[in-house]
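Would you mind giving me a polypeptide sequence along with per-residue structure tokens?
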Amino acid sequence: MDWKVISDRVLDGGNITEEEALAILESPDDELLEVLQGAFRIRRKYFGNTVSLHLLRNVKSGKCPEDCAFCSQSTSAINDVERYDFQTVESIVEGAQAAVDRNAKRYCVVSSTRAPAPKELETICEAAIQIKRKYPDLEICSSLGLLTEEKAIRLKDSGVDRFNHNLETSENYFSEVVTTHEFEDRVNTAKIVKKVGLDLCCGGLFGMGESLQDRVDLAFALADLNVDSVPINFLDPRPGTEFAGKPNPLKPNDCLRALAMVRFVIPETEVRIAGGRETTLRDLQPLALYPANSMFTAGYLTTGGQSYEEDKRMIEDAGFEIEMNA
């Protein structure tokens, strides 16, 4: 494959084929830098050399009734993950200061749930109103499970900018990961988010035993949904989950190829390196910034991660700069 020719086509407004996307994932290590260069040319056109940072806050932990096999907050997980009910408006608003202090573009408020209860929804909405009043330039993303159109409109009207609801994997492999709801349930929520005018953050998790074709199928499913942001997670098996002890087939180069493939498939979309990056990419983390233009900082929902100071140094050492709020 001539990756420059393919990237030229994408830069000119064309598309990559499914066969070419699969070829990226199957490409040999001695072509990796060419693949990354092709992805970087696309990334540079739409996002320059900036990296947007996002800070997560887990507002309800360890109480999810769903059985996602990778999740330490799942009903099927047996572990000592901290469990607490929905946090107060005041604590959620206070948490926004941590995002501002770390030059985060977005404050991501996440709840372990199937769908938000009415009181939980109102808590998020009231918190969003107060956060926007206090930090008008800070964008708010919420992740609250399955949505109805009415609830999505309520979130948007309160000042929430974006809603996260990952597809996680391909439709073909979904039942191997989740059985308490269907792939189509997630697609329907994603469509509702777009319909009401919220930005859609929707990605997946690689390394769960899915095939390379499943990864390609996920990327094209995301493209079909016209997503605005794609968080790419890499499996870091959590104790007590169904996937605990599962051999992770991903090597650092596999992660880089996956990120590059997503960039080629969805060129104008924000691509974020998310959970598991530290343990799977290891010393190659900086190279992930060539296809990706976004990342979470200062940890995840139930696990730690690199500190903001470490991430800032990594970004700057690689020749990129943090995207600052207006």
